[in-house]
Amino acid sequence: MTLGFSVDSLLPKARGGGQLRMGLVKLEEREWRDPMPDWEARTASFAAWPEAVQLTPEVDAPGRELAAMLGVEGALPEAALATHEDLCLLTKQPDGEVYRLIGAAVAWPSDWHPSKKIGLPLRALHAPIAGYEEQLATGVDRFMETLRPGPIYGRCNWFIAATGERRWLPDKPPQQAFAHVTPENADETLFVRSERQTLRRLPETGAILFTIGIYVEPLGKLSPANIAMLGRAVQSLVSGEGDRRGAPAYAASLIAFAERTAV
Questions:
Q1: Residue 24 lies in a domain
Q2: C-alpha distances in angstroms, 66 versus 70, 101, 171?
Q3: Is 31 part of a structural domain of the chain?
């Protein structure tokens, strides 16, 4: 099982609902990055949003190693312009026990601000995710600790947004953001967003690279099978997770549209 580069190809591999899980698949080198980046969109997005790039002194060497891997001169900011994916680098201090975010070049975040995450340890980075500490934190810590250079692992997820913009930073409460959504127009007013995430360890510096490829489509553009999956999944999110995602504001419309599509 591998991962594609579109919402329709990613959703069948994503967790539908219920308990949190990493859901990792092993990727070949050729499957690591999107082969058709939108260079213009990347350049414009970074230029329009300076907060996208957050650096600590520790990120210089890993950033330069990564840029060289991607065939460009420079460090993390230049590397992020050379690929579709947003890039995060994490390391442990020589005397530390936890991984921290030491650099981020994230043009298209999914409801988070790089400036508020830089420097945080792994568990604090994921603190807003309901159920992470109880269901996933220990497994993620173990995976990070044992990941060796060479293998590449990927996973994907999904969100429902009220906008098709790649940079998703909600500035309204969900009830207000989704107020215009109805079962009749959900195909055009609900946008399905999937992050294609990969993890690998850089061989020279030992830093862990976390990439995030963003894909967004209107609900109505997806396959009937994926629409049906989302209709089921939104009913079985972990307690608290649905509220964080704004599900109560759009769930009824999504479910009704999915049921109508299945007929």
A1: yes
A2: 6, 15, 33
A3: yes
Does residue 150 contact residue 7 with C-beta atoms inside 8 Å? no
**pLDDT digit string, tens, across residues 175-228:** 999 999 999 999 999 999 999 999 999 999 999 999 999 999 999 999 999 999
Neighbours of 72 (CB within 10 A): 15
C-alpha span between 177 and 46 (Å, rounded): 25
Q: Which domain range does residue 60 map to?
A: 7-262
> Which pLDDT does position 122 carry in this prediction?
83
Residues 226/257, Cβ–Cβ less than 8 Å? no
Domains: count for the chain? 1
Q: What are phi and psi of 71, to 5 degrees?
A: 80, 25
pLDDT beyond 80 at 87: yes
Residue 107 and residue 46 in contact, taking contact as beta carbons nearer than 8 Å: yes
The answer, yes or no, to whether residue 238 has pLDDT greater than 70, is no
Rg (CA), the chain: 18
What span, in angstroms and rounded, lies between the C-alpha atoms of 7 and 40? 21
Q: What is the pTM of this model?
A: 0.93
Whether 122 is covered by a domain: the verdict is yes
Three-state SS string across 187-202, please? HHHCEEEEEEEEEEEC
Token pair in block for residue 247 = 């599900």
Instruction: Render pLDDT for 27-69 as a digit per residue (tens, 0 to 9).
Output: 999 999 999 999 999 999 999 999 999 999 999 999 999 999 9
Distances (CA, A) of 29 to 67, 129, 136: 16, 30, 26
The whole-angstrom separation of Cα 52 and Cα 49 is: 6
d(CA 148, CA 91): 13
Q: Is residue 1 part of a domain?
A: no
